[in-house]
Amino acid sequence: MNAMKRRALALFLLLTTITGCKNAPEIRDLSQQTETEDFMYIFKPCSPDLLPEGRSKIFNVYDDKSAEYHSLFIGQVLSRFGEPDYTTENNEDLYSKAVSAEDKDGNVIYLEVYYGQSGPAIGGDVRDEESRKAADALAEYIMAAEPKDFEYKSVYEDLGVTIRMGVENGKPYYISDIPGGLF
Q: Number of structural domains, the chain?
């Protein structure tokens, strides 16, 4: 962050502290975004009510990686955006988090980061080119994060398999109880 940005941020923080402003906008270190000063989007958690109707999966994340990467992704989402909007014990609908992506011109795109039937994914308006671009940038932003420790227990109901996944001390794990004779 250059000196001018640091001074502006310090002044903003000082004024916020002095005035006791409780509704101050979220302060984001833009160097943590996808492209330091040439960032494409600012990502923030948002209300799930803002997600577009008819949204669908744009793509899976860590699709070609081992199951531990599913846990890693969830830990990275938790690190970037905090707790999900909801979680369940159904492995095919494990969690969801609504995220807004605002570009330099102030245009906002709403995306969903979720864990569903096909694993970790990003959803939105699949027909919209800007939504697909924002989803790509969001995936990069999430995958660059250090994961937060967590543990979820879920059931893959079609097979009766219990899954325990999480991150402990920065290391992802994915453990399943596959019943004997299933494979």
A: 1
| Backbone angles phi and psi of 23, in degrees to 5 | -105, 30
Q: pTM for the whole thing?
A: 0.76
pLDDT (tens digit per residue) in 67-123: 999 999 999 999 999 999 999 999 999 999 999 999 999 999 999 999 999 999 999
| 40: three-class secondary structure by DSSP | coil
CA dist 174 → 86, 112, 113, 164, 170 (Å): 20, 23, 19, 6, 13
Residue 163 lies in a domain: no
Per-residue pLDDT tens for 165-177?
999 999 999 999 8
Q: Are 151 and 166 in contact (CB under 8 A)?
A: yes
Domain-located, residue 5? no
pLDDT in tens, 115-172: 999 999 999 999 999 999 999 999 999 999 999 999 999 998 888 899 999 999 999 9
- Residue range of the domain that includes 133: 27-148
The rounded mean pLDDT for the chain is: 82
CA gap 74, 58 in Å, rounded: 17
Distance (Å, rounded) from C-alpha 51 to C-alpha 40?
A: 20
Strands 56-60 and 86-87, how do they pair? Answer: unpaired
